Amino acid sequence: MKREKILIIDFGGQYNQLVARRVRECNVYCEIYSYKTDLKKIREMEPKGIILTGGPNSCYEEGAASCDPALFEMGVPVLGLCYGAQLMMHTLGGHVCKAPVREYGKIEVAVDRSSKLFGNVSEKTVCWMSHNDYIETAAPGFQAIAHTPDCPVAATQCEERQLYAIQFHPEVLHTVEGTKMLSNFVYEICGCAGDWKMDAFVENSIRSIRERVGSKKVLCALSGGVDSSVAAVLMAKAVGDQLTCVFVDHGLLRKNEGDEVEEVFGPDGPYNLNFIRVNVQERFYERLRGVEEPEQKRKIIGEEFIRVFEEEAKKVGAVDFLVQGTIYPDVVESGLGGESAVIKSHHNVGGLPDCVDFQEILEPLRDLFKDEVRKAGLELGIPERLVYRQPFPGPGLGIRIVGEVTADKVRMVQDADAIYREEIAKAGLDKSIGQYFAALTNMRSVGVMGDERTYDYAVALRAVNTIDFMTAETAEIPFAVLAKVMNRVINEVKGINRVLYDLTSKPPGTIEFE
Ligand code: XMP
């Protein structure tokens, strides 16, 4: 049976993954595709509905992102959001132009509750607006179903053709009843059944993995992070003893992490993973010697990782499948799904270098967002403390050490980070901060310790709150906690004489330092 699906057509807006997550929170599966996707391909996917996202362009400008007008004639419900709404109106004969008053932020919108889109929504509801252009007049056959003082057509519909357009962003949490609107679209308008649930996902995955793998051998890259742990346990449930998990300790993990991973997933732990730990710290430091450029470090770490696997695979014997913990945002961000630019290469996506001798790759979590991976993990019985671990990048401390990586710098950042995490936990802040860590800057400066002059490194503390990791705000940590961390780091970590707190949000910064 074909899985019911909503298609999200991506016009390059910053909230597009959020749209997908909200739809999935309604238990409806959806996928993101670029606006350049061929209409034939869209038809073949037989979507229950289509959502057109926001985007940075003006739809009336030459060369602006657009879609095939026949998309609106498919007989499939379409919901346009912001740019998507304007594009729908522009394409179907409405008038979109520069708004006399630009709306930005939380704005009260009056909605027509007789529209299916706004069923159960309050008559006046706070929505998130962010637009320079506006729909001056809706296309023929459309009626306005929401307005604000400055925006006569904040939403419009043509019920017979099942076409809906809204100027604001229901996917953003600031739109208080946004999820209700999206839920109305997928259930009341598209007629979805809502069959996307994690228990069913786990069950179906186990069945399809068994079918695909048969009696062949599987090798899994286990990093101890949430994604690979969930992937490994899922595989173990599906194929049992045919699975071997290799954990590469590349020397770029957090302090004591290698031992902790071994404790949980190793032979003395609760899972049957045929766990092999490979200690290749020195080999990675050697490969990274003298390398300063972040993308180059990522590439080297990624490639070396694969080489180690190859070697281990050979020892295990013939291996047919390699499991990777790729998740959906990796797919989208690597430019394979939607329209987002490739900002950083994530080394675990997009296949392996040519010379790798595994036959096939299995990516059992490729369709899932992070929160869904966590739910699947709990479903599989993985303990909460592992499932809710904070994210740790594949290239590890390699991208938390600005400039060249050396064993000594790894020690410094590991020790500082361990102190930081310990103090955050002691202050009871560990559950409320999204991601926090120490990073070693490449700056050395003069200080005094006792009677001696020092010329040592500065460590930066980072703490951010984020819903989707696409944007992030700096977390406010009480000064007393920061001061305690500073004191301890300077006293306990040789080689560091300055502690900085990073205030940068994302954008313009990123969460990691490289
Ligand atoms: P940035 O630094 O891009 O981070 O704001 C967003 C989230 O992604 C993680 N991250 C990575 N994860 N390989 C990974 O597996 C990478 O190269 C990488 N770079 C960033 C980062 O920890 C944060 O959670």
Fraction of residues in β-strands: 15-25%
Tell me the radius of gyration.
25 Å
Number of strands: 18
- Number of domain modules: 3
Task: Give the tags.
514 residues, alpha/beta, Rossmann fold, GMP Synthetase, Chain A, domain 3, 3 domains, nine-stranded mixed β-sheet, five-stranded parallel β-sheet, 18 strands, 31% helix, globular, binds xanthosine-5'-monophosphate
Write a short abstract of this structure.
The protein is α/β, with parallel strands linked by helices.
Provide structural commentary.
With 514 residues, this protein is α/β, with parallel strands linked by helices. The chain folds into three domains: 184 residues, Rossmann fold, CATH 3.40.50; 190 residues, Rossmann fold (3-Layer(aba) Sandwich), CATH 3.40.50.620; 102 residues, GMP Synthetase, Chain A, domain 3 (2-Layer Sandwich). 31% of the residues lie in helices and 25% in strands. The strands form three sheets. A nine-stranded mixed β-sheet has the order 2-1-3-4-9-8-7-5-6, with helices on both faces. The chain is globular and about 75 Å long. The protein starts with 5 loop residues before the first strand and ends in a 13-residue tail after the last strand. Xanthosine-5'-monophosphate binds next to loops.
Question: What is the topological layout?
Answer:
Layout: E1 6-10, H1 16-25, E2 30-34, H2 39-44, E3 49-52, E4 78-81, H3 83-91, E5 95-111, E6 124-137, E7 143-148, E8 151-158, E9 163-166, H4 178-189, H5 198-213, E10 218-221, H6 226-239, E11 243-249, H7 257-265, E12 275-279, H8 281-288, H9 294-316, E13 321-323, H10 328-333, E14 360-362, H11 370-379, H12 384-387, H13 407-426, E15 435-449, E16 452-465, E17 473-474, H14 479-492, E18 496-501
Parallel strand pairs: 1-2, 1-3, 3-4, 4-9, 10-11, 10-13, 11-12, 13-14, 16-18
Antiparallel strand pairs: 5-6, 5-7, 7-8, 8-9, 15-16, 16-17
Helix pairs in contact: 5-6, 5-11, 6-11, 13-14
